[in-house]
Amino acid sequence: MPAQTEISRQLAAFAAGAEYDDIPPDVIHLAKLLVLDVVGNAIGGWSTSAAKYALRALRTFEDEGQVSLIAVGRRTTIPYAIFGNVVLASALEADDTPLQLGHHAHCAVVPSLAIAEYQGASGRDLLTAVAAAYEIGMRVAVAATHVKLDPAGHPVRSATGAGVNYVVFPAAAGSGRLLRLSIDQMASALGIAGVTASIPLGLRYRRPYSHAKYNPYAFMAQNGAMGALLAAHGFTGDDAIFDATETEAHWWRMSGALDANPERAVEKLGTEWWMRQVSFKLWPSCRYTHGPLNLFKRITTRERIGIGDIEQVDVWSHSAVTRFHMEEATVTSEADAEFSVPHAIAMTAFNIPPGPQWVAPRYWNDPAVEAIKQRVRFHVSAEMDDALLNESLTNGYRSTSPHAVRVRTKDGKLFEERSDHAPGDPQTPETAVDDQELIEKFHNFAELTLPAPAIEECVAKIMKLDELDDVRPLLKLINN
Prior knowledge:
Blueprint: H1 7-17, H2 25-45, H3 49-58, E1 62-69, E2 74-76, H4 78-90, H5 105-119, H6 123-142, E3 144-145, E4 147-149, E5 155-157, H7 168-178, H8 183-195, H9 217-232, H10 251-255, E6 259-260, H11 287-302, E7 310-317, H12 319-323, H13 334-338, H14 341-349, H15 367-373, E8 376-380, H16 382-395, E9 403-409, E10 414-419, H17 435-446, H18 452-463, H19 472-478
Helix pairs in contact: 1-7, 1-8, 2-4, 2-5, 2-6, 2-17, 3-4, 4-5, 4-9, 5-6, 5-7, 5-9, 6-7, 7-8, 7-9, 8-9, 11-14, 14-15, 17-18
């Protein structure tokens, strides 16, 4: 293995040295939207069983001081608040998908928000930390290779699936930036985080899904933040965890990646922002369901096809959908609902508002919903599979997710559409979301928990975070 050094130092220096005035305005704006999205997801996630059980466990650690559990109205220690708030923020599977590399906005935003609340930090400091944290996560992710071709041309995947255990690093970087860690301390924080990165279950997707789903995001956010808190008090970690020598492996290899290009993690660092490739979700379901449900909605709206008119819905996409069992219609848990193409299409057909209602138990076995779900047929397209794998192999990430939908009505008419992108993808002007769409999503997710005036005020404060001298009034509002 050729020697690769100083990658760790460069990433640590970037995270420790990030300053608000050096970050492009559009990236700062994206950081605001990420805060808005994560907070909205957390408020919506409050109604799920995952939140119920996690908060019941955390009740043991309640405290009058430190930081807030979002939308709960209780306070606890920093590590437990981070854990609980990431459970809330990830419970509805509505979190961002940067280049379809898992999710990590909650691991960038929640720890930063907790430290900012504890310190009484400004909105500018929070946005700086979120931007630096998110960028660190993206760069660690795109440096990894998780898919290769064997000599026969068949795909070989890493044992950790998509390698989403990289999300431990945004938590360390954002927390460390707010704690004003030195470069040496930040390098230690990233090192501590790296050795606590857990094993994601990318090749063990099993239905029915558990509350842990496929990656323990809450544990990893907590671990990353603890790395920063420990480093701030002198605790040291592997400060060269991303570097390799002739005899030592770098983090990517140790974490389960098939290969890595560490230099990619620092290429044009600070001048080009991978964060601009964030893909926001508008629906509370896996990203792979969004393309089909969007095309189904487009067809049925344009052609004025009612529920009673539908004879069959055919969906074509790649084998990642079947590998994760998302073609299955049976739903016995909230997580099952989030990973089912038939369920997503049924919720769209019945015009259920995207939010906590989508995964509510009352829709799991509803006869009318079941009737629509049973009309959905899923097909793996060899062409779409090849396109996805080839791009994954070439780029190390998925910038497209090809899919097609055909609706057959009871009078024999056929309507079909195809796309390589879904709403929220930044790669095309047609699919990139605007502020208003994310604000509407926030309303949908928060309406069962917060009164309308509080929702409006919360949105206003987040969109003007850089004008807040202290973020604590925002947290007080969220927990009203």
